[in-house]
Fold:
Amino acid sequence: MASETLAREMSAVKLDGDRGAKFATPNASSGGGVLYAKDLDGSDAVRTLAKLCGYAVKTEMFKKYVGEGKTSPVLVVNGGETIVGADACLTRVAAAAEEGGAKDVLCPGTCDATANETWIAFERERLRPVMMTAVGMLTGAVAMDETALKEATEALKEACGELEKRLGESKYLAGDAPAMADVVVVATLFPAFAKALDPAARDAT
Structure:
């Protein structure tokens, strides 16, 4: 599957190596902070994007967070600003990347900016919710509901089918180079493939 190949290739990312997808080498982005996170909350994408953008983030378990935010992940930026939720954290890291001169990590010049935004929205609206439901139930993080699990798994397969179609037309989601869309989609695909779509991996847990 093209989407699985993309996930494997992106997992081998090196900023200046000879394997895997190659991102632009960033300057160190301004700021940084502590990311309080737990499984299946979208924090994998935040951490990966931060690393690629040179934005220094230290990860702590969400239960260690003592502020007012109730939804994980929470990013406490150096200086005291608190960002709540995966999408808000991604937006903050992306903004810091642009400020720090790492815009090409988010959307290289060879990529289509509109396509990048489209696939970022696809991950947020179509892929992540059903992944969280399916994988959450299969791992015991969410109460099992056979009907809801079947619906989520089918929706996940349908979403992957759309990714397959796109990756049959383009090397990466937004064009000829990896962009932010690839980061967020792959961060969601890994648990989905391991726990919901791959029977061998699912049955081994």
Summary: Helices lie at 2-11, 43-53, 86-99, 103-106, 113-139, 146-169, 180-197, 199-203. Confidence is low (pLDDT under 50) at residues 9-20, 24-29.
